[in-house]
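To assess whether ligand presence alters the predicted conformation, the chain was also submitted together with adenosine-5'-diphosphate. Input:
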Amino acid sequence: MKKYVLAIDQGTTSSRAILFNKKGEPVRIARRDIKTSFPKPGWVEESATDIWVSVVESITELVEKAHIHYNEIDSIGITNQRETTVVWDKESGAPVYPAIVWQSRQTASLCDKRNSKSDFIFSRTGLRLNPYFSASKIRFILDHIPNGQKRAEKGELLFGTVETWLIYKLTNGRNHLTDVTNASRTMLFNIKTRKWDKDLLKIWNIPSCMLPKICPTAHDFGDATYLKHDIPITGVAGDQQAALFGQTCFAKGESKNTYGTGCFMLMNIGDKPILSKHGLLTTVAWEIDGKVTYALEASVFMGGATIQWLRDGLEIIKSTPESETLAKKVKDTDGVYLVPAFVGLGTPYWDNDVRAAFFGLTRGTTKEHIARASLEAVAYQISDSLRVMQNETKIKLKALNVDGGASANNFLMQFQSDILGCAVKLPVCVETTALGAAYMAGLQTGFFKSLNEISKYHRYQKIYQPKMNKNLVSEKLHGWDLAVKSARSFKPHLK
Ligand code: ADP
């Protein structure tokens, strides 16, 4: 009797294995942390072998501790940190270079060299020319190993983002596959034809023989024969797309925001890609039963990390939840704004040169005001992104589904609802990323019957409704706009 779907959630800082039951409830979880190295300023790398081992160890621990048999597991869903790039030897299966992590800036100059192509690249991929995406990372690896280009052209090397690497290892090297959502983050994938794009491959000089085959998100990716019992891998999606699915944002216009280190907001835009004029990325959300759904995505660099800075940088709080206690001790920020541009600003500004700034400080400013202004800043950034999304799609948001570490902060969620003027909904199961992958896998096998069935399982632990007076909201947003403008005009570090 098949009782569970196993979700593998391979993230930047940890790998997790989670068992979900027939009602989409998490019943057991195991995790392993992953070591990240920073070999030079701006470089971020991980060992692809460590990533693989961490996944195997978490699955093994999960099954042992849950006292279940492998044959009770119906299928496997994989969700993963996106864009992180692995290249390995086809013959030995050994990585030829460390995995270059999505955050890494080590390929910035490779992108700069292709600046004249940025509009063309955007028109084909929906992505901004930026070191985040995989293409420049593959180029970098081929340039940094002996005879890299030649070996790739001879078909001796394989490329994969993390899901491809895991499928390859789990199927004992039989299958070299990716899914549409991960492919759409490589900068080599044509978002309209949904195929690898010859012109893009040419721009990066990447041989097509090293690329995996692109599959739908719910699909038979092969049996995980590496495990003690062969279990089919039937669902695969990048982490943010999986979270959108796990939040059951199945209808056009439905959106979710994940409040992690950064914030990633995705809106389901239906079956046609929209190319944004104002800094949003276009991405494939999923492909199921031959139907493709697209999403618009906003990236905010400093989400929960702003609160980490209060704890580790300013040291005005001992734990991140304490930010809520402090914020609630004052009735407002007393006119204080923080623009948390510690690493520049993402959507909709995409300004790498702006620095963080406080505005409106007086002798009366206390750490309570600072904490409150910091939490409000997270919400303002989401509001900026949403304003752009609503303008471009002409869709007015009814509710924002939320998850991620900082969604536990009641003050932040209430303020978010106030500023957006819509409901903010926190689900019972906050493991939405893993849940999304499990849903996709289970839909493919029939473990879950339909999107309708899944939607019925989705329950909320809390729904925040807007309470703030509309004039006050406008006043606050006006203050925020002025603060961002002022911060962006302060660039003495630029000669
Ligand atoms: P990631 O997946 O990016 O590692 P998580 O979803 O685990 O992130 O969330 C961690 C982030 O959430 C941290 O930046 C932390 O500062 C923030 N965070 C966690 N709990 C709270 C809280 N109660 N209030 C505000 N921020 C919080």
